[in-house]
Amino acid sequence: MLVDSHCHLDFPDFADELDAVVERARAAGVGRMVTIGTRLSQFDRVLNVAERFADVSCTVGVHPHEAANEAGEDTARLVALAKHPKVVGIGETGLDYFYEHSPRDRQAASFRAHIAAARETQLPLIVHSRDADDDMAEILAEEMGQGRFTGVLHCFSSSRQLAEKAVELGLYISLSGIVTFKKADALRETAKAVPLDRLLVETDAPYLAPVPVRGKRNEPAFVAHTAQAVAALRGLAPAELARITTENFFRLFAKAPKSAAT
């Protein structure tokens, strides 16, 4: 069994064939998918997808791109929405200094509010970090000192130093199709170094389809390609890598049902 720990099934890219996309994931051995919240104003859309499929869970949060336009600093609202049985995490949230669609101070304020919600709910935090390694490490360390929380740096493509800091703080690292890209040698070296008990895999679908399907719209079934590549990097059989990352997922996302029938 594999888990796609991060995808966006509510996005319009999947609207015309969502049932088929989920069926293809199941056929590829994906036993659970987590569709990720990026806007509170569109949370109902995310939740509707999760409620439609027994093997899909969801999260609630505000992407850093949306921090200036959404109520990402409303910890109480995040906590209230997270009470729904289908919600298994807080986010995605974090810092994105590559695009900077929202001012950095608003991103940081939203990020800290999400951390507070993760602490209060005891749900894992889904962290987006791009071109913000120093500030990300500083905020994570500072906030961890104010009270522990769990979480994952998703779609990891940052420095090895940030990965090591995240692991030191008790967080997990999730690898996407980027790890299969031709120019991702540094990321592959990081992927080899992350402790096996802190690794997850994901698609971030519809983005970042892995080799050998790069260039296509990504979908949860393709997490199998990423998992196979990571298994090869770590010298493991694909089935063993699947077992490890799935166990890691359910340890971190403790609210997620372990089977569709649960």
Output the CATH class name.
Answer: Alpha Beta
How much of the sequence is in beta strands?
15-25%
- Specify the number of helices: 9
pLDDT below 50 for ≥5 consecutive residues: which ranges? none
CATH architecture label: Alpha-Beta Barrel
CATH superfamily: Metal-dependent hydrolases
SSE-based structural type: alpha/beta
User: N-to-C SSE series?
Assistant: EHEHEHEHEHEHEHEHH
Under CATH, the topology is which? Answer: TIM Barrel
* Strands, total number: 8
| Helix share, percent | 25-40%
> What is the mean predicted local confidence, pLDDT?
97
- Cα(first) to Cα(last) distance is 16 Å
| Order of adjacent strands in the largest pleated sheet | 1-2-3-4-5-6-7-8
Mass-distribution shape: globular
* Major sheet size, sense and barrel closure: 8 strands, parallel
* Spatial extent as radius of gyration: 17 Å
When the domains are counted, the total is: 1
Task: Summarize the topology.
Blueprint: E1 2-7, H1 18-27, E2 30-35, H2 43-52, E3 56-60, H3 75-81, E4 87-96, H4 104-121, E5 125-130, H5 133-146, E6 151-153, H6 160-168, E7 172-175, H7 185-193, E8 199-201, H8 223-234, H9 238-252
Parallel strand pairs: 1-2, 2-3, 3-4, 4-5, 5-6, 6-7, 7-8
Helix pairs in contact: 3-4, 8-9
Describe this structure in words.
This protein is of the alpha/beta class. It is 40% helix and 16% strand. The chain has helices at residues 18-27, 43-52, 75-81, 104-121, 133-146, 160-168, 185-193, 223-234, 238-252; strands at residues 2-7, 30-35, 56-60, 87-96, 125-130, 151-153, 172-175, 199-201. The chain has an 8-stranded parallel β-sheet. The chain is globular.
